[in-house]
Each structure stands twice: as C-alpha cells, then as structure tokens.
Amino acid sequence: MSTQLNTANLSTFPASIQTPKYDRTHLTQPIIVHIGVGGFHRAHQAVYLDDLLGQGLTDWSLCGVCLLPHDKRMYDTMKSQDCLYTVVEQSSAGNNARIIGSITNILFAPENPQAVIEKIASPECRIVSLTITEGGYYVNSGTGEFDANHPDIQHDLANPDMPKCAFGFLAAALELRRKNRMIPFTLMSCDNMQSNGDVFKKMFLAFARLRNPELAQWLAEHASFPNSMVDRITPATTDEHRAMVKTSFGIGDGWPVVTEPFKQWVIEDHFCNGRPAWEKVGAQMTQEVLPYEKMKIRLLNASHQALCYIGMLVGHQFAHETMEDRRIRTIVERMMDDEATPTLSPVPGVDLTEYKKTLIERFANPAIRDQLARIGTEGSARIPKFVLPIVVDQLARQKKMTMCAFTIAAWFRYLTGVDDNGKKMPIIEPMEAKVCPLAKQGGADPKPMLSLHELFGELPKSEIFVAEVSRALRSFYEKGAVATLEEYSKI
Fold first, then answer.
1. Contact predicate 222/233, CB 8 Å
2. Pairing outcome for strands 103-108 and 31-35
3. Are residues 46 and 194 in the same domain?
4. Contact at 8 Å (CB) between 21 and 54?
5. Tens digits of per-residue pLDDT, 138-196?
6. CA-atom Rg of the chain in angstroms
7. Strand extents, DSSP E, 371-458
C-alpha cells in the first residue's frame, strides 16, 4: 500500500519520514534557477536548501530547468508530484527517507524555451546554478580553449531566441537583463571540474563575445562565477529504487533519489546578487576552493575512472563489487597514494590519509549499488579532466604514472564495446562516433586514440607516457583483462 506523493498528501505520511513543514506557496522570491535537474542536484544542492528552509533560515527556493529532450519523463513526473520527491540515504545501518520541497517550479526547455529565458531574466532570479556534466562547457581538452565549432554552439549563435544548450539560454536571458538595466545574476557551476567557476567564466565569455561583445564586456565587469566543490555519490534512479521507496516507505514516487549519507559542498564566497546562508547547514564558504577541488577530482573522480572501466572489462556491474575485488582495490589505492596525492597541495582542515580511507569505504557501500556504467559515461570529458592532470604533474615531477596509464588503456579497451568474453558493455559517450572507431582501429596500438588533440593535447609528445599506455593496452589485447589486472595489481 502506498500513497501518491503530492502536496495534498504530505500530511498523511508517517512521522518517521521527514517532510517539508514550511509553506512552499510563499517561496516566490528570491530564486535559484538550476539547469540540469538530475539525481545529483536533487540529492545535493536541493537538500542543502531544504535544510535551510526547514530551519526557517531562508525564503529562497529553486526553479529547475530540464534542458534535454530525454528529460521529458522526469519533468512530467516532477510536475505531477508538485515538484516533491524522496531522497533515500542508504548505508549498512539501514535506509532513511525524507521528502524534499525546495524545488517549487520546473520547466522543460525543449518545449518552451521562451519560458526558460523569461524565468532566468526575471528580477527574482539571483543565482543560476548548473549541473550539466563536464562536456556541457565546450572545452577543447587539448587546448583548454572554447570549442566554438561545436554544433550546439553554432546552432545557438544562429538561433539566439531558440537556444538548445545552457550557454544559449543564459546569454539570451542576460541580454534581456542588460537591456533592462538590471544587474546580472551569479553563475555557479556545480560540475566536477577543477576551477569550475573559472572554466565556466572563460568558456561562457568566449561564447558571449561571439554573440555580442558588449554583453561579454558587461558580464566581465558585473557578473560573478564562484568556484565550488561538490561531492555525494548518487546512482541513477532505477525501477528497483521506485519499488523500494513504495514498499519500504509507502511513498508513490515516480522519480526518487537514492544516495549515500555523506555530502560535501565547498563554495567560493563570491556572489554578485545575494545568496542563501548555506554555511548554516554544513556548506563551507571559503575564499580558496582549489585545494578542495583538486583533492576531490584527483582522488574521488579519478579513482572512479580507475575502477569503472576495468570493473566492466572483468565482469563487475557495481562499484562495491570492485572494492571487493582486491586487485582493483589495489589499483585504486596505489593510484591515490603514489600518483594523485603527491600532486596535491595541503588542504585546510583535511587529513588526506583519512579522506582516502573514507573514499574506499564509500565506494564499498553495498547499499548504494552504484552502476559502473553510470560512472563510466562521457569518458571523453572525464578522463581529460580527472586523470590527465595527474599524468601531466607526475611527468613534470619525473615520477611514475603507471596506474593512470593503466586506467587510460582500460578506457581504450572498453570503447571497443565488448569484453574478453564477447559480452556487450554499455557505452554512453558524446564522442562515440569518433572515439569508438579509433579504439577499434588501433586495437593494441594507442596512437590512433592518442592522436585526438582535443582530448590529449601535447601529452603524446611524451615518450614515457605513450610507452606506459602502450604497455598496458598491449597487455589487455595479448593477455586479456583479468591477467592484465592481476599483473598491474602486483607492480
């Protein structure tokens, strides 16, 4: 027996389930417009704001924007539930459910782009935050410059009133604000990129200059792009999760979020138009985010890449299974300790040894059942941002990057689409049409893949780097994934 989740039924849920006790109808301004309403945002930023609202510490609310056509089902579900949804924290101690109410409105951009532009341009919008994945910023990883030739960018420059990508919507709204003599809003990236605010600013201003140099100049003078570091492992919602929420908690929720108890948010305190008091509910406001960003990206995100491709190649499905495999666990620990940690600066208030221990425990959480296929999506965006910076720094230090090279080789082998037994592996990759044929063409030779300057830049000029990747990839083809994993776990 379950009760459909909506505003009218909120009071009927048992006291053991935390529900919004604040009046959501009065949360009209100020607002944060968030682009990319996926599971992570709903398990992270929306939860922090719900905590603030629950303590009566703010009047801010969220308006979500579903950007992509395949978001339609989630949009319809959220609308039918009055934007309410369930967050379930899963750990070995059990499951805990709460209903989140901080999102009070949601828009579907492909259906009504003008409504999205008007909402972002409205005076009540003070912050626009984004979780659009690393690939959504149009960075040429080889040069670090803006990819102005991307089809999305070319479309939005040619059709400024009918944009498709986040940059197009933001530019259209900011142009309206500029013409109406309003101040801009803060533009806050919550994606996993080192110096994400700085990268966002560089890429977006490059786009704005192509659209209107006056807009770009105005933004450079008046807008703010704070850096931030976000962390919470959040697997994709499945039918199994929906059934669990219904049977365990009696909640009929078409799009719940399942996540781990841990969450972290470090934010550069640089906002041009006000902000909620996130520090009152556990976020860390600081003037220097970079040490925290590098720590998280090079230890957590790079380790995710290290475990997911080899995990799929040897037949695992979930992250916790890779931590039960002593060989993969060893690869991850050595990459953390020997290759990533030496490239990090001291992190205020953080014991890196304890942090790494906590990461292994989080990866090993069997309740989360985080799918390797999810972790391995968009490798062409993630490998250059998470793994290659470690390689660059280790080469500069004349130190080893064996496990990073192993990870890159495992990615190349994964891109062929089948494991050693001929079993198909799921590939979700924006550059699939380019990288998969090159991976198959190259086989044991990494040079075709390494020739992609937009991914690897000048790294292939390093004989040491090419030799390390070649050695690992050749082993994958000559000995197989299992034997290669066994060999590298003993290096």
1. no
2. unpaired
3. yes
4. yes
5. 999 889 999 999 999 999 999 999 999 999 999 999 999 999 999 999 999 999 999 99
6. 23
7. none
